Amino acid sequence: MKQMLCVGLGLCLAVSQIVSAQPASPAGADAYMGDWEGTLKLGGAEQSVAVYMIPQGDGKYQARVASEFNKRVPVLFDVRGLLQDAAFRAVDAVPFDVSRVLGTTGAGVVVDASLWTGKLEGGVLTGTVDGKDKGTFTLKQAERTSPTLGQKPPAGAIVLFDGTNLDAWQKRDGKPAEWRLVEGEAMQVGGGDVLTKEEFGDFRLHLEFRTPYMPTSGGQGRGNSGVYVQGRYEVQVLDSYGLEGADNECGGIYQIAQPAANMCFPPLAWQTYDMTFQAPRFGPQGERLAGARVTVMHNGVTIHDDLELPHVTPGGVSDKESPTGPLLLQDHGNPVQYRNIWIETQK
User: Fold this and answer.
1) CA-to-CA separations, 332 to 10, 90, 194, 344, in angstroms, rounded
2) How would residue 103 be classed by pLDDT, with cut points 50, 70 and 90?
3) Number of C-alpha atoms within 13 angstroms, CB side, residue 220?
4) pLDDT at 29 (0 to 100)
């Protein structure tokens, strides 16, 4: 069923009702998702832009336009549409309610929004903006890589996972871990949470992960897992690529703190967490003297800096703090992968 939508001052187009569907192409075949960068010229003013091309399945994308990557900056434009067969066609992601209606034509209503159209040739996406805003854009694909990706454990570090076995891990009930070893020296979530057999107090941790390609899923059902420091404080793992960066999104400490920036890479890209953790301190009678503290670097950028953790987060091994605890990786039902995990204890 087609409906007529008029965008901006008299600009009309036919759009189909959007129906959620599974992608026709296999995961990994999405050539357009991910980072794009270039220039946007509106009203005679030109600026550099960073674009998060978020896959939504069947050639549909949400493109969030900001001034730069790797920082918490305002989203300048949020558009949704199609990028198929090298042709781009999208409209501002605005609520289509009566407050947006500017008038009517014989074809439909006129809405306060802009239409973005473009063509990809030679690796460059060029196009125009028409309707509410008028201008042009030029974009090229970009790729960010963590500077700590593949970092080797220093002398004396404890290797928790190197791709060969799960000997350092167990299930919550103490039975052997059942996660599957997969290509790329990785293990894949499945069969319940896993936690280290050994417990740790103060430490420095390196861990690599990647979220799966789940374009038709969203929210907490899209590439969800978690790294529970000391089994009690969750640093969220989620495909929240291009989103706001909330405490329940990738890099957030669940219900405690949002990351300083959303450093989440696109699905299927390997990412890194580098953490320095100081366990809570207790007196001779078990009284709490100081809370736990953590510094988290996500893909090489500090997103939590010596943050005091006022309490444990839900879903861990205990609701009480402790001087030591295991490292726990959460099974939230999505096939997230982990690799290259090592820890360096500190006194």
Assistant:
1) 47, 33, 11, 27
2) confident
3) 9
4) 61
pLDDT band, very low/low/confident/very high, at 106 (cuts 50, 70, 90): confident
CA atoms 85, 87, 93, 98: torsion sign? negative
Residues of the chain with CATH 2.60.120.560: 158-345
Q: In this structure, which amino acid lies at residue 250?
A: C
Work out the number of other CB atoms within 10 angstroms of the CB of residue 28: 9
Report the CATH architecture of 2-16+29-141.
Beta Barrel (2.40)
- What pTM value is reported for the model? 0.89
Say which CATH topology domain 158-345 has.
Answer: Jelly Rolls (2.60.120)
Q: What count of other Cβ atoms lies within 10 Å of the Cβ of residue 177? A: 21
Length of the chain in residues, anyone?
Answer: 347
Q: Tell me how crowded residue 148 is: count the other CB atoms within 10 A of its CB.
A: 16
Judged against a pLDDT cut of 90, whether residue 223 lies above it is answered with yes
Letter string b/e over residues 93-131, b meaning 16 or more CB atoms within 10 A of that residue's CB: bbeeeeeeeeeeeeeebbbebbbbebebeeeebebebbb
Using one digit for the tens of pLDDT, what is the confidence trace for 40-73?
A: 999 889 999 999 999 999 999 999 999 999 999 9
Q: In what order do the strands lie in the sheet with 233-237?
A: 169-171, 194-196, 328-329, 225-229, 233-237
Is 12:107 a contact under the CB 8 Å cutoff? yes
**How far are the Cα atoms of 268, 280, 282, 309, 322 from residue 285, in angstroms, in the given order?**
48, 14, 8, 21, 13
How does pLDDT run across 301-329, given as a tens digit for each residue?
A: 999 999 999 999 999 999 999 999 999 99
Residues of the chain with CATH 2.40.128.120: 2-16+29-141
Which are the contacts of 266, defined by CB distance < 8 A and separation ≥ 6?
Answer: 33, 34, 35, 55, 241
Q: Is 220 helix (H, G, I), strand (E, B) or coil?
A: helix
